[in-house]
Design brief:
Elements lengths: L1 E4 L10 E4 L2 H17 L3 H14 L2 H17 L4
Antiparallel strand pairs: 1-2
The structure holds zinc ion.
């Protein structure tokens, strides 16, 4: 298992997620983001709107994901 924080995954807090694969951890952070969105958490709303802006540019989004995937891959196993 590897661990990343909400902040590292483009979020807005120090909550940690642990998963075996990047796809899994990305999904966990997405679920958490949607939860915080429903609670109208100001910091997460900002992070989500930044992410939405990034998604308007598929190239930039792909690059961001590739970088995060590399970051995940380079982490030591817990
Ligand atoms: Zn968070």
């Amino acid at each position: 298992m590897k661990t990343m924080t909400c902040n590292q995954l483009g979020g807005a807090c120090d909550k940690t997620f642990s998963a075996k694969s990047f796809d899994e951890i990305a999904e966990m952070s997405k679920q958490h983001g949607m939860e915080m969105f429903q609670k109208s958490d100001k910091d997460h709303l900002k992070a989500i709107s930044d992410m939405m802006a990034l998604m308007q540019n598929p190239e930039a989004m792909k690059e961001w994901l590739d970088n995060k995937r590399k970051e995940f891959d380079s982490l030591p196993e817990d």
